[in-house]
Design goal:
Radius of gyration: 19 Å
Structural class: mainly alpha
Mean pLDDT: 90
Number of helices: 12
Strand order of the largest sheet: 1-2
Order of helices and strands: HHHEHEHHHHHHHH
Shape: globular
CATH topology: ABC transporter involved in vitamin B12 uptake, BtuC
Largest sheet: 2 strands, antiparallel
Low-confidence stretches: none
CATH architecture: Orthogonal Bundle
Length: 306
């Protein structure tokens, strides 16, 4: 039984990795007081940029290109919402539509091509730990990078001066400006970081997880990443747990028919999304928890004095 469980858990981590990257990026963005609903679009831009770059420079080049493309895709959103004060949710939706269209247009030249992918690397000693070793430490390098990203974001937010400044900007931009911090500049940096992380998530999908280009290959993962930030009540550890939960549901629905579950494949494919909605509904019932952790200025424009 355990031998059958190990590959399921290992593939769960691989399936959850794009959500970890995109979710952490959106969490940092929202901690600064900005809500960016364009994660899906930035992931798709990162996916096509990463795939195109990986054909010439390998997976590492693809991941870097995805990060750059995601950050560049976030810049128009920053200019419109932070410099001009447009509505953040509406502008984020426009960014998603733009990303879908742009990636489809560029991707038509790469439909018939594929990449060799990235082989898992077993970390010496750690991979020999019973059960945990094969699950956590026999993964691709990008999965290990997601562990590092989680650790750095959690440490930065909780233990560093930069994290304190970021949270101050998200809670009270007026107070942060009054003590000398450039609110708009900090929000630009946080939002572009979120774009870069979404771009990495997309590049991982097209170069490692399924090393080929397919139109709309993110399949709603960008929206799930945004939802996971709320599910996590803006805490990195809970976001990581939520990403792995969604990844586990995704893998289980793939194995369900093998386990004898006689349901239409379309219904099984919807299970991870339905489970996410149910969890969000349950979390949202406790408004005290949400209000306690919600950045006070989230989604509110700040222009004067920036």
């Amino acid at each position: 039984m355990i031998e059958q469980l190990i590959p399921i858990l290992a593939t769960t981590l691989a399936a959850a990795t794009p959500l970890v990257f995109a979710g952490l990026g959106e969490l940092v963005t929202e901690k600064s007081g900005v809500i960016n609903l364009g994660v899906e679009g930035m992931m798709l831009v990162g996916a096509i940029a990463g795939f195109a770059a990986a054909l010439h420079w390998g997976v590492a080049g693809g991941i870097v290109a995805g990060a750059v493309a995601g950050a560049l895709a976030a810049l128009p959103f920053c200019f419109l919402t932070l410099s001009l004060g447009t509505n953040q949710p509406a502008t984020g939706l426009a960014l998603t539509i733009f990303g879908i269209g742009l990636s489809a247009f560029i991707g038509q030249f790469y439909v018939s091509q594929s990449l060799p992918g990235l082989q898992p690397y077993a970390i010496p000693l750690l991979s020999s730990i019973p059960l945990l070793g094969p699950v956590f430490f026999e993964q691709s390098a990008v999965v290990y990078l997601s562990y590092l990203a989680f650790g750095l974001v959690a440490w930065m937010l909780a233990r560093t001066r930069w994290g304190l400044i970021l949270r101050a900007v998200g809670e009270s931009p007026e107070a942060a400006h009054a003590i000398g911090y450039h609110v708009i500049g900090i929000r630009y940096a946080a939002t572009c970081f979120g774009g870069a992380m979404a771009g990495i998530a997309g590049a991982y999908l097209s170069t490692v997880y399924t090393p080929l280009w397919v139109q709309n290959m993110t399949a709603g993962r960008g929206w799930i990443a945004v939802a996971l930030v709320v599910f996590a009540t803006w805490k990195p550890a809970r976001l990581m747990l939520g990403a792995y939960l969604f990844g586990g549901m995704t893998i289980l629905q793939l194995h369900a028919q093998g386990f004898g579950v006689d349901l239409p494949s379309q219904l099984l494919a919807a299970v991870p999304y339905v489970a996410t909605i149910l969890v969000l509904v349950l979390i949202s019932r406790d408004r005290k928890v949400l209000l306690l952790n919600l950045p006070a200025s989230l989604g509110k424009p700040y222009i004067s004095g920036g």
